Amino acid sequence: MTEEKAIMHILSHTHWDREWYQEFQGFRQRLVFQIDALLDLMEKRPQYKYFHMDGQTSCIADYLEIRPENRSRLAKLIESGKILIGPWFVMPDELLLSGESLTRNLLLGRKICREYNTDPMPIGYVTDIFGHCSQLPQILQEFDIDAAILQRGTSGEDGASEIVWEGADGSIVLLVKCHPYGGYGDFYLIHDKSDEEILEYEKRKHNLATTSVLFGMDGFDHAPAQWMLPEILDKFNNTFKKTRCIHSSMSVFLHDLKAALGEDWQETHKRYKGELHVPNKQNIWQEVFQGTGSSRIYLKQANDALEYLLPRCAEPMHVWSRLHGGDDQKSFLNLAWNYMLLNHPHDSIVGCSVDKVHRDMLYRFSEASSIAWNSIWESAQTITSKIDTKSLNEGPVLTVFNMAKTDSDKITQVSFEVPQGVINEKRNEGMAPVLLEEGKTIPVAVLDSEPSVWNKPIAVKYHKGNPKFLVREDLGEIERISAKAPIQIPAAGYSSFKVGFLPANEAKAVQLPEGYAPVAVSANSIENEFFILSANPDGSVNLKDKKSGITYKNLGEIEDCGDVGHGWDHTYPKEDTVIRSSEAKNRGNVSLRTESLSPISAELHVEYSLSVPKGVVPDRSKRHSKRVAIPIKNIYTIDSGLQRIECKTIINNKALNHRMRAIFSTNRKSSKWFCDTAFDIVERDIKLMDTTGWLEPKREEGVIKNFAAVCDKNLGLAIITKGLCEACVQDNETRSIALTLFRGFSQSAGSHWTTDSQMQGEVAVEYAVVPFAAENGRPPVALFDEVERYKMPVICYTGQTIHEGSLPLKGRFIDIKGDVVLSTMKTAEGGMSAVIRIFNPGISDAEAVITFHMGINQAWLCNLAEDEISELSPDGNELSVVIPPKKVVTLKVV
Predict the structure, then answer these.
(1) DSSP characters for 320-382?
(2) How far apart are CA 101 and CA 300, in angstroms?
(3) For residues 322 and 800, which has the higher predicted lDDT (pLDDT)?
(4) pTM higher than 0.70, yes or no?
(5) Helix (H) or strand (E) holding 239
(6) In degrees, to the nearest 5, what angle opens at C-alpha 392 toward C-alphas 411 and 600?
(7) I want to staple 483 with a disulfide (CB 3.0 to 4.6 A). Which of 303, 320, 444, 601 is the partner?
(8) Phi and psi, residue 399, nearest 5°
């Protein structure tokens, strides 16, 4: 009796980098020609059955922009299931992005699939991502995807092709592992091999498979569909001994594989839990790379700012504007997301492409930011037009919006606008600005002013056929004043103030409101009610936490080392020279200066130059013997009531091929350190795993999203960053947090060596130091509240006239209580509902109580895809939901 042969599903595909060693337009030209050929192939050779578009949908629009005449041909093949697209819009990096960004990527991918009357490919297609986040299984399951395919993150050992992947919350997906020797091109790369090599390939595939259902990946980077594939399959079927090849699709393969695995596969297969970021042990194309968080940090900074501006500011403002009669701006905001998501492919946001690619990215980030801010101004106009300002008697009226989940800091930086003629007249009279609220006078500390600018925004709308210009009153030129003031804006709310003037000496003498403590300043220290920050002769600082009595010493030392790596990885020269600012021989004179910005805020300026090698020698084996002096300036800020120390570091980078880190000694006793990733706080080992003899060694640094922290059972220290995405806690006695400020490198990408990647000129970075009380030896979920207060801008809108309205001078739109994190508040993908997404990154259940300022008609619990799961029963205008550990919850409210 003949033994039944195993079936190998051959999955034809291309791995399509939208941009990398060519700019987008160059790659698109290739894409267009290849899809032209694919259409011909599938129409003329019906035995060529399937082709997979790399799990993406963006390539469809990229193609049709050039070939609109082929829309019906392409749509027919997609709808019939012969060309498979989705589930993503673009194949994203995971570790560098927020959970909200990953969610929107899948939402847009699904939307485009449905426009072509097809379902997204039913697998988390992340074949070439440099490590995988702990919550991807949950994210996929919320989009009804129960499998993932990848090749990096599990060490590349000859393990099974089928693995159990359990996410942080316990969600499970079937992990299909690409071939350890050929990756996502294993079948494609063996087309022309000898019979002996083909039989060895067959043997390896059987050794890796846990069932008789096998798969082979017929494609590679930017590879076209193979016209002769039917003949190639015949060749393999005549050569293989125990296997029959069929041309198949991912959907068919998964169906057959799941049937063959049986119901108990989760108990019988190897299990991975949480993050997948194990270095490559032995095979090619398995590297996870460990320098992706620090290459071209200007990209990470721009992305980080937008990941707060769009889902946390613009979209919530749009919700409340719509509920108060404002116009629909969803298409604008969708376009902003489109621009930003196009920057999220792994070779884009990582920073490992040619310079032109990353210059194009800055344009897309800029466009997304412009759309978001214009939407914010439009929403602000609508909402402020509903605020009753009659009691203020006259303008200007400053309304400050705070879209964070918590009240703003007690000192808020604002901007307000005064007609140029008025401000000139007041100055001539010796007057200075103040804010007035409910009869109280509030002092302001003016930081800067921008004279003779136009008032904005300007919009044109059509009402009943008549054009209506919406301009903040036509006042001619205005002056925009930036200031700090002792005001605290309600969470997810607003406060309105009258901008007034007093004689300068009276304005200066205005007392701080009750509950505010003035900051103190000495020659080398600044102090508020919580901390004393003092400078050391070597340029580092000491931070005394008054509550705990602990002093964190020598914070902010700079460490500089060589870098002969590339966008994916930092690489030390064979003979490296490490420079530390604590060593006097490497450092110029330290200049210290304190600056008092009225009683509410103070700055400590620390400046020196660091002498570092100017670059590396031609063979890149060691750093150059000649040195250059790099000016470094740290500006530390402390405000009344502020429970963090803010720092802006400005570096005039004159050297090449080097990495700079800031070191913060914590002296906490711990074997673990913590950081946040998409929808989670993850725990990482401080002691590195032993990777002796591996192709890729384990490095101490890792990708972070918003913060890095270390703590003992009681106390800890965190560094919150604005777009600095690489850090670690060092395995030393002081358990130092090492935060990468930047690294400069040059790589051969495409036809030339990159230059922008050297980060020449001014590099400005921002971060904050936050002592905290630990909870069971972990950072508290409330640390995210501090992240919000530090990173989310308040929105300031100045109206020049008073008017009646239905809203009070101060109010909240929504109130969210509980140890949860707000991810977004947005209009639903369909209809007028509002969507609120919150998550619990902690290890215990958390109850969230959400109170709306409007009544609730209906509410549903949804998945991330916004499909309704179950209807909820609001208590008046209040919703209460218990969120298990590590869970993401999406609510839809009418």
Answers:
(1) HHHHTTPPP-HHHHHHHHHHHHTT-BHHHHTT-S-HHHHHHHHHHHHHHHHHHHHHHHHHHHH
(2) 13
(3) 322
(4) yes
(5) helix 229-239
(6) 15
(7) 444
(8) -110, 125
